[in-house]
Amino acid sequence: xxxxxxxxxxxxxxxxxxxxxxxxxxxxxxxxxxxxxxxxxxxxxxxxxxxxxxxxxxxxxxxxxxxxxxxxxxxxxxxxxxxxxxxxxxxxxxxxxxxxxxxxxxxxxxxxxxxxxxxxxxxxxxxxxxxxxx
Length: 134
Prior knowledge:
134 residues
């Protein structure tokens, strides 16, 4: 599961989308109240961009960058260290009414910051002209 970036992130995005789709009608109609600081529509928009979208982009880039740079893919514990903050961000936003929106924001943004650093490192360490091939 942690040998290629697309595996955990595409799986996570797919499972997250299924769960969000399953609960969304009841949340939108007010039949289910999530413990989030967001309104139903704000939660949905945020999670589709920063939950689903970020996972899909991460899975794609972690698969494509090794092809562009000639480097081995981020895998194993390093990849798991990226998946955990993505998941933690989903959980933090979900319970943001209980932990506070600022705490949830820090946890949620942590994945994007760490992921950007990993991408920058992988591209900078690439063999030859990886950026020119983008």
